[in-house]
């Protein structure tokens, strides 16, 4: 896959753009003013593999809490700020690693200059985030929505460039998947900056993961995207899991175990749905990039199970266990989960 060449920037210790791996972001859903709850949620996300976290900063109390939060977490922290330059200045002084801020929404040029100067002094990048729902009213009505989104982003970008600031990241998000894809295509060849991609307000997990996988997947397959967030109406850990599954599906990142399981059919003679669900729940804790197969019968089962690091091909009340392409032994249906766990633990211990 040829990736678009973008300028490399650094958010804390995470490289974004250039040749860096596509980074997974999420956003806390706690009240940022409640520093303890926010820290606890970020720590949980760190354990899931989240690489960059963003917190909403609606007021000065939230901006001041960033200082406490920043000290307790390992991953880079981005402050999400709208309109109020004082919150941006406070966030920068708190030591955040990035800002999400649209400079065009701060009307006084002197106040914008203060924020940009502080960000520059600290080498803190600014993400310009254009959303379909908040486009300026004075854009050329002849433009398509995607073109308007790109044009709105360019306005913000020009403000930063005029202030000789280039640590920029850009996102253009809409709920509508084709609009979002077109907006990124519009902007990609006009700027050198890295792109943060996602489908905004994509809904609850069932709908949102599909919308996000299609939108983000198409963009990634066109080489667009340097960081991503899957926005879901759910706990943010679901966003991180979904983001890695999208990246893993395109072979762009490795992260934890991958479960290969068949859909079951009239040939299945074990309770494969329960077994696969239990294996999936267990695999959440595995950090190594293992492929684990749980297959229902001897038609496709042995092939997939052999191809995996470890797997089972089930028959009537029994299964054959495979490891690294070799048939190991036959096991009872009731032992499938325990035997797989034993083999996986052995494999992880030897890595
Ligand atoms: S692997 Fe076997 S049981 Fe599973 S869907 Fe395919 S044919 Fe059916």
Architecture blueprint of SSEs:
Elements: E1 9-11, E2 14-16, E3 23-27, H1 35-48, E4 52-56, H2 60-72, E5 77-80, H3 85-93, E6 98-100, H4 109-121, E7 126-131, H5 145-162, E8 168-173, H6 177-188, E9 196-197, H7 205-221, E10 227-228, H8 236-249, E11 258-261, H9 272-283, E12 291-295, H10 301-307, E13 310-314, E14 318-323, E15 326-332, H11 336-349
Parallel strand pairs: 3-4, 3-10, 4-5, 5-6, 6-7, 7-8, 9-10, 11-12, 12-13
Antiparallel strand pairs: 1-2, 13-14, 14-15
Helix pairs in contact: 1-2, 1-8, 2-3, 3-4, 5-6, 6-7, 7-8, 9-11
Bound molecules: iron/sulfur cluster.
What does this 3D model show about the protein?
The protein is of the alpha/beta class and 351 residues long. The protein contains 11 helices and 15 strands. The protein has an 8-stranded parallel sheet. Bound molecules: iron/sulfur cluster. Iron/sulfur cluster (SF4) binds at residues 262-265, 267-268, 295-297, 299-301.
Could you provide a short overview of the structure?
The protein has 11 helices and 15 strands. The chain has helices at residues 35-48, 60-72, 85-93, 109-121, 145-162, 177-188, 205-221, 236-249, 272-283, 301-307, 336-349; strands at residues 9-11, 14-16, 23-27, 52-56, 77-80, 98-100, 126-131, 168-173, 196-197, 227-228, 258-261, 291-295, 310-314, 318-323, 326-332.
Feature tags:
five-stranded mixed sheet; alpha/beta; 15 strands; binds iron/sulfur cluster; 41% helix
E-strand count: 15
- Proportion in helices: 40-55%
Rounded mean pLDDT score: 95
What's the arrangement of strands in the largest beta sheet? 8-7-6-5-4-3-10-9
Alpha plus pi helix count: 11
Helix and strand pattern:
EEEHEHEHEHEHEHEHEHEHEHEEEH
In whole angstroms, the N-to-C terminal distance is 29 Å
Quote the beta fraction: 15-25%
Poorly predicted regions: none
């Amino acid at each position: 896959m040829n990736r678009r060449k973008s300028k490399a920037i650094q958010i804390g210790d995470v490289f974004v753009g250039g040749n860096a791996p596509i980074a997974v972001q999420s956003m806390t859903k706690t009240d940022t003013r409640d520093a303890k709850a926010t820290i606890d949620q970020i720590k949980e996300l760190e354990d899931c593999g989240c690489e960059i976290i963003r917190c909403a900063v609606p007021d000065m109390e939230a901006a001041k809490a960033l200082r406490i939060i920043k000290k307790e977490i390992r991953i880079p922290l981005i402050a999400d700020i709208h309109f109020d330059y004082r919150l941006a200045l406070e966030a920068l002084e708190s030591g955040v690693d990035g800002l999400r801020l649209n400079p065009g929404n701060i009307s006084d040029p002197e106040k914008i200059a203060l924020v940009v100067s502080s960000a520059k002094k600290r080498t803190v990048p600014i993400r310009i985030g254009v959303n379909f729902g908040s486009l300026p009213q004075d854009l050329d009505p002849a433009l398509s929505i995607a073109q308007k989104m790109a044009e709105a982003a360019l306005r913000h970008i020009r403000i930063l460039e005029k202030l000789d600031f280039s640590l920029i990241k850009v996102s253009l998000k809409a709920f509508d998947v084709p609009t979002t894809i077109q907006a990124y295509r519009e902007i990609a060849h006009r700027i050198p900056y890295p792109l943060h991609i996602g489908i905004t307000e994509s809904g609850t997990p069932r709908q949102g993961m599909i919308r996000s996988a299609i939108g983000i997947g198409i963009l990634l397959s066109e080489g667009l995207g340097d960081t991503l967030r899957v926005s879901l109406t759910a706990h943010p850990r679901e966003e991180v899991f979904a983001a890695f599954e999208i990246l893993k599906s395109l072979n762009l990142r490795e992260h934890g175990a991958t479960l290969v399981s068949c859909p079951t059919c009239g040939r299945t003679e074990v309770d494969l749905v329960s077994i696969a669900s239990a294996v999936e729940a267990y695999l959440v804790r595995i950090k190594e990039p293992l492929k684990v197969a749980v297959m229902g019968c001897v038609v496709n089962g042995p092939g997939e199970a052999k191809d995996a690091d470890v797997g089972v091909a089930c028959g009537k009340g029994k299964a054959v266990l495979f490891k690294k392409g070799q048939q190991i032994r036959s096991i009872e249906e009731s032992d499938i989960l325990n035997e797989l766990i034993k083999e996986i633990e052995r494999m992880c211990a030897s890595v």
